[in-house]
Amino acid sequence: MEKCSFARVGETMYHEKLENGLHVFVFPKPEFQKGYAFFATNYGGMDMRFCLDGVWHSTPAGVAHYLEHKMFDTQEGNALQDLAANGASPNAFTSNDITGYYFDSTEKFEENLRILLSFVSVPWFTQESVDKERGIIGQEIGMIEDDPHWKCYMNLMKALFQRHPIRESVAGSVESIARITPETLYACHKAFYDPANMVLCVAGPVDPEHICAVAREILPKEAGPIAVKDYGEMEEPRAAQSLIEERMEVSAPIFQLGWKGDAKRNGEDRLRQELVGGLALEVLLGNSSPLYARLYREGLINQEFGYSYESSSGCAFLAADGESRDPEAVRLAVAEEAARIGREGVDPDLWERVKKGVYGNRVRGLNSFENLCVGQAQAFFAGHDFLQFAEIFSAITKEEAEALITGWVTEERTALSVVRAREGEGQR
After folding, report:
1. Per-position DSSP letters for 169-189, written without gaps between them
2. Residue 158 bridge partners (DSSP)
3. Where are the alpha helices (DSSP H) in 345-422?
4. Which residues pair with 6 in a beta bridge?
5. 388 is a domain residue
6. C-beta separation of 314 from 231 below 8 A
7. Do both 192 and 68 map to the same domain?
8. Which strand (E) or helix (H) includes residue 133?
9. CA-wise closest residue to 56 among 252, 286, 232, 265
């Protein structure tokens, strides 16, 4: 077993690759009573087209999320109920990239870990249960489609990207999930729920060797074939369209403003770009930036304003969102500030303040077992270690952030999604 020390952040991680291909990461925390386990597969909402055993499959949107819902069903009952009965707090989620199952508990941790590993690795679906779930998920889809913020975000994805599957909702649509059968779910489980395509991350008062022993006992002994994913042709830098507008029940216009970036291949370069992107957003839009002060003073944004750097396989972008009486004015102001930074650069004092603040927030986040485990799983699938950020962060220069801003925040890469009040309702 490999012991990985990250001296800059005072963390130790143990890593072992089992014979079946599963990677296990353990963060021992003997001073705590509660333990946390996260079992994840490198399979998310975007992974609709793949090749397994030489055969290409095109699946409907929403299969990964549907599968997540159904995995808790077992021949004996329901794993969610079993975990809860043991004092655990279990749950799961599906993102664009991954599906993860997790729990935390102070008692019966090993027993709960066995339940987690068992139900995720052994699928059990019936036609009746799949049909029943279709109605439940259909209701979920109806609720999110009525959410103006969700609609605004999905419209931004459609405005930024011509064909990348990030354009599709993780949950799918009522029409797409109608095509999901038990056979579809079994095929996708075989393709992606193999130990060699998965990771187990554990934090708490546990012995790393014992965690590996439990995994060896419960999971398949050998690795199966791994599906090859296909996201289509590489996206060009230009946004698919500059503006999408929608009318819904809102009291004030809400917006999502995005800038299409250049996707990095998995590895340290991807992590570095993530860190540079986060810093670029802080100096451009953060509450210490000149632009934020101006937009707030002029009443173009309020406390709902937020921003993020996001990346998935084959795509990367910056986004800002909030309420505004004039989203187009926000778009113009950001473009002007990016051009100014291109001419004058970022103020050195602002850069140092931002860099210290961002690093401090990231380190404080390590106090959360969930952040450690989920972060390591996501990082591993992206080709690096979560705690590697500390070494890279210190070397990032102001010029890198400036280059990203001037390279990405351009007219051709910009898209704006706006949801306004329906005619005759609220503000227009």
Report:
1. -TT--HHHHTT--HHHHHHHH
2. none
3. 348-364, 369-381, 389-393, 398-408
4. 11
5. yes
6. yes
7. yes
8. helix 127-145
9. 232
What value does the mean pLDDT take over residues 245-260? 97
* pLDDT exceeds 60 at position 111: yes
The pLDDT, as a whole number, for residue 418 is 98
Q: CA-to-CA distance for 299 and 291, rounded, in angstroms? A: 12
3-state secondary structure of 324: coil
Same domain, 7 and 124: yes
> Residue 44 sits in which domain range?
2-229
Dist CA 371 CA 362 (whole Å):
10
Cα gap 213→71, rounded to integer Å: 23
Q: Which of 205, 229, 253 is the last residue of a domain?
A: 229
Asked whether residue 60 is assigned to any structural domain, the reply reads yes
pTM surpassing 0.85?
yes
Q: What is the pLDDT of residues 141-180, one digit of tens each?
A: 999 999 999 999 999 999 999 999 999 999 999 999 999 9
Selection from 149, 390, 365, 150 nearest residue 268 by Cα? 390
pLDDT tens digit sequence for 295-338: 999 999 999 999 999 999 999 999 999 999 999 999 999 999 99
Range 223-258 burial, b when 16+ CB lie within 10 A, else e: ebeebebbbeeebeebbbeeebebebebebbbbbbb
CATH number at residue 88: 3.30.830.10
Confidence of residue 425 (pLDDT cuts 50, 70, 90): low
**Residue 120: φ, ψ to 5°:** -75, -30
| Rounded Cα gap, residues 419 and 248, in angstroms | 6
Q: Give CB contacts under 8 A, 24+ apart, made by 51-60.
A: 51/227, 51/228, 51/230, 52/187, 52/190, 52/191, 52/225, 52/227, 52/228, 53/225, 56/230, 57/187, 57/191, 59/180, 59/184, 59/187, 59/188, 60/172, 60/176, 60/177, 60/179, 60/180, 60/184
Same domain, 297 and 182: no
pLDDT at 342: 97
Residue 428 has pLDDT above 90, yes or no: no
What backbone phi and psi angles, to 5 degrees, belong to 69? Answer: -60, -45
Whole-number CA gyration radius for the chain: 23
Token pair, residue 44, equals 């998310």
Count how many domains the chain has. Answer: 2
Q: Which residues are catalytic?
A: 68
Q: Quick one: 104 and 251 in the same domain?
A: no
* Stretch (H or E) spanning 420: strand 414-421
